[in-house]
Design a protein that fits this description.
- It is a single chain.
- By secondary structure, the protein is of the alpha+beta class.
- The chain has two domains: 2-46, no CATH class; 77-160, no CATH class.
- Helix content is 37%, strand content 13%.
- The protein contains five helices and six strands.
- The chain has a four-stranded mixed beta sheet with strand order 5-3-4-6. Strands 1-2 form a two-stranded antiparallel sheet.
- A hairpin with a 6-residue loop joins strand 1 (2-3) and strand 2 (10-11).
- Helix 3 packs across helix 4.
- The relative contact order is 0.11.
- The structure holds zinc ion.
- The site of zinc ion has 8 residues, from loops.
Length: 167
């Protein structure tokens, strides 16, 4: 059936003109059912326009295990070596200053230490006498040096909590 756009009258498909109002039905396309090809195209268009979901990456446990092992090895090495950093700031007897990394750090020694840092910790202040006795007390560290480096100011400042004292 062809529906007349003018009067909405239903006309048989063969009619060239609306039998009711005489409208030219040749202008009206007959309502054909969509062909299977058209249906397929429409279906494909619908599917291809849908966003493709990102693939959820399975979180590998291998990475985590490696990290734990690495941390464990590092932790054990740290416990065995027990490294410490000792800094002697430039003073009269040692105008260049020195930093050394030593092993077998005792529990009384902070990770970063210096004569001034030890004086601050033990006496709450720095004096020339304390400096000398602190230096004398740590001479045994020289047997346990891993590496000897030039004076590192930030290592000194870490040992004193950011304080600097006259040389
Ligand atoms: Zn009509």
């Amino acid at each position: 059936m062809k529906k007349c756009p003018n009067c909405n009258n239903e006309n048989p498909n063969g009619n060239l003109f609306c039998w009711k109002c005489g409208y030219d039905l040749a202008k009206v396309p007959s309502a054909l059912p969509a062909s299977p090809v058209q249906t397929l195209h429409a279906e494909l268009a619908k599917q291809t326009s849908q966003p493709i979901q990102p693939v959820k990456k399975k979180k590998g446990t291998g990475c985590l295990i490696s990290t734990i092992i690495l941390l464990a090895v590092f932790g054990i090495a740290w416990l065995i070596v027990r490294p410490g950093v000792f800094t002697i700031q430039p003073i009269g007897a040692l105008p260049e200053g020195v930093t050394f990394i030593y092993y077998s750090r005792g529990p009384e020694m902070p990770l970063f230490s210096s004569p001034d840092g030890l004086c601050l910790k033990i006496q709450g202040g720095v004096s020339l006498l304390c400096r000398m006795s602190a230096l004398a007390a740590v001479t045994n560290l020289t047997d346990r040096i891993i590496i000897r480096l030039p004076y590192i100011r930030w290592a000194y400042l870490l040992s004193t909590g950011g304080m600097e004292f006259e040389q």
